[in-house]
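Quick start: what a row looks like.
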Amino acid sequence: MKRAACVVLPLLFSACGPEALPTPSIVSVLPERIGAGEPASLSVRVDAALPLVVNYDDESVDPAQLAMGLRIGGVKVDIPFAEPDGTLIVPVPQELALGDYDIQVTLADGREAVREHAFSVVPDPFLSGEPCDGGSPRCNEPEDPDPSSPETGRKITGFKLDHVQDQVRNQPFPITIRALGPGAKSFGGRVSVRANWGLMRFISPDAFSNGVLVQEISISHTDSRVYLLVEDSRGHKGLSNPFRVRSR
């Protein structure tokens, strides 16, 4: 027996039956600026009521009812991570030119939310700490020589993962994580790394050196589009390229 239901979930998404549903909204988008031509991700927080029909015979829900799409500047992107608070972590197309971009979220039943001028693509030096012409004061921030200083974490803007090749399930492989921002070289904080599919295992935990961490990991499940997400305690993030994990 299938029946429509209205269930409040422990996040900004709520699941409801076929009655008129409210228009979804995009609550926030972070960061507000990214550097041109550099790998980047966005955290898009969505408030939405999702239509839900529950099959009470086997207590199942068709996951297609919870599907949603996201477009950045009209370009459809993957949604590799959906957090419990309704935040979608998505990759930014690297080919975007300088300027402001809208973000559009489309639910499975066709309802949409649009946030105009949601974020900006700016010249990379404004974010990386490289020399810039009369630009942001952030470009001139001194590096903190003490990696353990709490100020060091405030002087990075995120993380970048070197390109990840296709891999084999349960076979160890190295990943290289680079801190970004004015304090990148002195960053000595800890980060978490997780995959959007399958269990991930650290093989040789290590520490950052001059803003770079080489870490050996393995992934337990196969999939054609696996992403890795790096995050520190202050919420700075980095998203890998999609890669394939084969059975052998």
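That is the whole record. The first strand starts at residue 2 and ends at 4. The two ends are 41 Å apart (CA to CA).
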